[in-house]
Amino acid sequence: MARLLKPFEYFEPRTVEEAVQLLSKYGHQAKVLAGGTDLLISMKKRKITPQYVVYIKSIPELDYIHYSQQAGLKIGALATHTAIADSAIIKDKFELLASACGKVGTPQVRNMGTIGGNICEGGPSQDSVPSLLVLEAKLKLISLHGERIVPIDEFFIAPFKTALQEAELLTEIQIPTPPPRSAGCYKWFTKITTVDESLAGVAVLMLLDSTDGICRDLKIGLCSVAPTPIRARRAEQVLRDKKIDNSLIERAARVAVEETSPRSRADYRKRMTGVLVREAISETWQKIRQLHLRERA
Amino acid sequence: MKQIANFIVNGKACELAIEPHMLLVEVLRDELGLTGTKQSCGIGHCGACTVLIDGIPTLSCLTPALTARGKNITTIEGLAEGTRLHPIQKAFIDYGAIQCGYCTPGMILSAKALLDRNPNPSREQVKQALSGNLCRCTGYVKIVDAVLAAAESMGKEASE
Ligand SMILES: Cc1cc2nc3c(=O)[nH]c(=O)nc-3n(C[C@H](O)[C@H](O)[C@H](O)COP(=O)(O)OP(=O)(O)OC[C@H]3O[C@@H](n4cnc5c(N)ncnc54)[C@H](O)[C@@H]3O)c2cc1C
User: Fold this and answer.
1) pLDDT-wise least confident of A290-294, B22-26, B106-110, B150-154
2) Model pLDDT, residue A294
3) Shortest Cα distance, chain A CAs vs residue B160, angstroms
4) Sign of the dihedral defined by the CA atoms of residues B31, B34, B38, B43, in that order
5) Which one-letter DSSP state was computed for residue A61?
6) A30: distance to nearest CA of chain B, Å?
7) pTM score, whole prediction
8) Interface pTM, i.e. ipTM
């Protein structure tokens, strides 16, 4: 692999408008650069050799984390993994997202890498995505022609191929507040060391009725076990509107495994999916029961 | 085409004309002669190229230099005052936390960022803060010991 980059022309817009103008002018020869922790590696490997690089981190209006009960959580595309993992409000109300971002790479990678870059890279193993899938995040995409909102489960098309169009910029991730008495978690297993990408990642979000112990809603998001991050919708059905017990959790985990289609190390990834789904649901179930107990106390 | 870039490197303002594809590690080493910053894996795993940009540990091998315009950059050369070593540097020597030395600059800068933010870290927090810096010869025990010792000596210095 080359350690140096091939020459390119460099732009540093200060506004979203300026950025999308540049992207539209240079089309497929241009590439957006945020934290660079994915893009620069692809450029060094000569997988991507853009002629024009549009660096967006100098656009101040894209780096924020806002929350209100009504509007939910709004994260600017440039928020770093460190900012998200350390955010008090995200740790409190969207803990599964904080732990996913806290898992990414190393401290340096989290300081540099953005959530927007994680989503737009569009690979199978983007760690923030399972949590965003179960939280039903929406993505705000802006181009010269205006803005559109795309639900995240419609964003991933094929490995490294997303719904993002050539001259479009992801500007914001919008996440509704989960219902009260819901809880979730993100569980993962890495390939070898903690710096490695996930072998399998599982996010779970559950809503449990405290009066009868019935699971009113369950969402399961997976990464690294299919060509794109996916929801395990059939496994979700196994528990929805049922009274949870260990054998049902076991069954949901088995169904989730059937929903995967890993591109490599299939046997290992499938087994680990089963383990992680079981653990994630059990842990979430525990969390909710504790929440209920605390409420009653 | 070259563009003009102004940086503050180790407290000193400098102005350079650089090609957009030049990485920060190249500019520091080849243009400014600050060879303390090491280039190793080139793909963000090892942390040898770590520098502080506005106090934040950053991989200079994945940073086009132009993106650091106007920023405060601290490299390992910026820590000692003349011949007086920074307490973290001194602790690394005292605790035998250096062998080949290749990871040391990045390791010390990650440690400095931690101690600047949290002067009194737990052992676990030190390990966490250094988890993006690989060492292939000392093992990490002495390094972690050194950082904890530096925290203590800096605390004493501050209260004197
Ligand atoms: C050592 C190491 C370990 C890593 N570990 C993990 C890990 O554990 N889990 C994980 O998920 N990832 C990991 N990564 C990958 C990477 O750090 C993350 O995906 C990161 O979030 C990418 O963000 P970035 O800002 O650096 O993106 P960039 O590299 O700047 O961009 C990535 C892609 O997204 C596009 N893009 C970026 N922002 C936008 C935007 N706002 N609008 C439109 N397009 C955009 C770029 O054009 C590019 O195609 C690791 C990387 C390294 C180097």
Assistant:
1) A290-294
2) 85
3) 32
4) negative
5) G
6) 14
7) 0.97
8) 0.97
